[in-house]
Amino acid sequence: MTRVQANLVLLLAGAIWGMGFVAQATAMETMGPLLFVGSRFLVATLCVIPFAVREARKAPATLTTSQWLAFAWVGLMLFSTITAQQFGLLTTSVTNSGFLTGLYVVMTPILGIVLFRQFPHVVVWPAALCTLCGIFLLSGGTLAGLTTGDWLTILAAFFAALQGLFIARSAAQTGRPITLAVTQFAVCAVLGLTAAFVFEPVSLDALRGAAVEVLYAGMFSGAVAFTLMAIGLRYTTALQAAIFLSSEAVFAALFGAIFLGERLPSAGFAGCALILISMLAVEIVPALRARRAARLSP
């Protein structure tokens, strides 16, 4: 898979997540956040296990204990991301949540430098800031006083940045993106359901009431989108991936207009344009510079 194809895969993942935002919000009308997280990732695990088994049979070598632990660590980061975001939605507005979740676009290159000394291509910095401005405009161009839910969403963005960095390292080193995906799903399912039985009321009525949301979030936002993310990050950088995955905000606005009758203000269209420009910049500028360097080299 080429880097261009990988970035398109990540763009598709962003589209699926944009569609799934409604499911995340409406599911909590009938069930608690932890039960939703655990049940959706149980569905995701069951969906992806057959493909992980097939991948394992074709793998040239078995995974080591340290590699399994790295996969589990990624799962913990995913659980932290989704849980913080889910609880944040209880006490923050959709506007604030959409903008604050997008902070991972800026956090990813910063954490890459701090943790792994990964210095991005110079175009990533203006692209990340441009994306952040685009998400801000897309969310309405306003941000009310920060609530507990806002801070939880900022924490979710932090864990999302960490998850992307560690997925990129693990997927590239092992060549087992589907196994990585199903491992992180299983970790989320076990932690979410265990915590739900301890801290929340659990009933069949709650599961039946949010069955459609759980199935969509598990099969598509979970199994399909996160697996696409793991596959795409094997062939591109976490920094470029953060830009392309931020398209989630654009697709959320698009699907909101199609299915919910919502309409973007002029600032929202400007935000979409900024995000699109950012995605094109991180894809085109490095390619042009590499081509120019190749022509000038003896």
From TrEMBL:
Keywords: Cell membrane, Membrane, Transmembrane, Transmembrane helix. Its main location: membrane. It is a multi-pass membrane protein. It comes from the Bacteria. Residues 7-139, 148-280 form the EamA domain. It is found in: Cell membrane. InterPro entries: Diverse_Substrate_Transporter (IPR051258), EamA_dom (IPR000620), EmrE-like (IPR037185). SUPFAM superfamilies: Multidrug resistance efflux transporter EmrE. Pfam families: EamA. The chain crosses the membrane at residues 37-56, 68-87, 99-116, 123-145, 151-168, 180-199, 214-235, 242-261, 267-288. Coiled coil: none annotated. GO terms for cellular component: plasma membrane. Signal peptide: none annotated. This is MFS transporter. It comes from Tianweitania populi. The lineage of its organism: Bacteria, Pseudomonadati, Pseudomonadota, Alphaproteobacteria, Hyphomicrobiales.
